[in-house]
Design a protein that fits this description.
- The chain is built from 5 helices and 19 strands.
- With 329 residues, it is α+β, with helices and mostly antiparallel strands.
- The protein folds into 3 domains: 168 residues, no CATH class; 97 residues, no CATH class; 55 residues.
Length: 329
């Protein structure tokens, strides 16, 4: 699993732009848009025509594909989300919105009203999507009634971001002996205490050697995570994951378990006593002896049977039929 951390610098061209269209530079910076991944539910205030939703998800693995890299994942750390929002504010880009990442479809008449970082105490409305702390929620006001109704009607289902980022490869905690282990001093996620609730996370390992962690029981609705080389907790990637104990879990785009397929139990034979084994062997031996006697009897009857030509052998002094039978034995 190739994973990259996306970073920006407050003093260069990296950051969120919404309208940026540039070639991919050679210094490992990427222009990325996230319109198809991890869409979040939008929330509305009809009286003020306000639209709210998660715009930037922290610690959320997002699938990407590149001709050079192949399949890989990227994510934002909370501190990078803060830097992105700060830079957008400095550049007065918070109200810069387009449709479907099309630079020719810049939305006019939309105004950024407010935003906040997700914390333990400040969550998005109807939070059922495992939104991680450090994610950023944005609220816009749209004066145009037509587009507002289109958005509310489901034509556009979530906010998205695009921008230029530094891609830094990271290692994921693994129990695979063939993979590099975490450097000394890095904490195992098992037993880490989070916040005032003193939550402890259990661990399981996939057949690929990736360590996943979760709180409570591994069941439908449980949020599952992986850990990067710095001990950061990142939502597990979407898809099917087979564990070393044989179970398979299905994880959605928000790192939530949607299905757990248990190991099929093997049907083991019942315990057999020694006396039962002896009885079976005796029965087999008796059957064999009976078969042997029946076979010998059939051969004896065949040898004594009268067949054409028997007397001819006796008159001519040649070998008799009985002699031939004896020789055949």
């Amino acid at each position: 699993m190739k994973v990259f951390k996306l970073l920006i610098d407050l003093e260069d061209e990296t950051g969120l732009t919404f309208n940026a269209l540039v070639d991919r530079p050679a210094h490992n910076k990427s222009l990325l848009a996230f319109d198809k991944e991890h869409k979040r539910e939008l929330h509305f205030n009809d009286s003020k025509r306000m639209i709210s939703g998660v715009a930037i998800s922290s610690n959320q693995l997002i699938y990407r594909f590149d001709e050079n890299l192949g399949d890989y994942y990227v994510y934002f750390e909370p501190k990078e989300v803060e830097k992105m929002v700060l830079k957008m504010s400095r550049q007065q880009l918070l109200s810069s919105v387009n449709l479907m990442h099309d630079s020719k479809k810049v939305v006019k008449g939309i105004t950024f009203i407010e935003g906040y970082f997700v914390t333990d105490t400040k969550r998005p409305p109807n939070d059922t999507e495992n939104v991680q702390n450090g994610s950023y929620v944005m609220t816009y006001c749209r004066r145009d009634e037509t587009l507002y109704n289109e958005i509310k009607g489901g034509r556009y289902v979530g906010f998205s971001v695009e921008g230029i980022f530094d891609q830094i490869p990271v290692k994921i905690k693994s129990n695979n002996k063939n993979q590099n282990k975490m450097s000394k001093g890095k904490k195992s996620l098992f037993g880490i205490v989070f916040g005032k609730d003193q939550k402890k996370f259990a661990e399981a390992t996939t057949t690929d050697g990736v360590v996943i962690s979760y709180e409570g029981d591994l069941e439908v609705g449980t949020a599952v995570f992986i850990t990067d080389d710095e001990g950061n907790q990142v939502s597990a990637p979407e898809g099917s994951h087979t564990l070393e104990d044989g179970r398979t879990i299905e994880v959605d785009a928000n790192g939530i378990v949607t299905e757990v397929m248990e190991v099929e139990e093997e049907v083991m034979p019942e315990d057999v006593t020694l006396s039962e084994v002896v009885d079976v062997l005796k029965t087999l031996n008796e059957n064999f002896e009976n078969y042997k006697k029946e076979t010998e009897s059939k051969f004896e009857k065949l040898a004594e049977a009268k067949v054409p030509g028997k007397k001819k052998f006796e008159r001519t002094g040649e070998k008799t039929w009985k002699d031939l039978v004896k020789e055949s034995k």
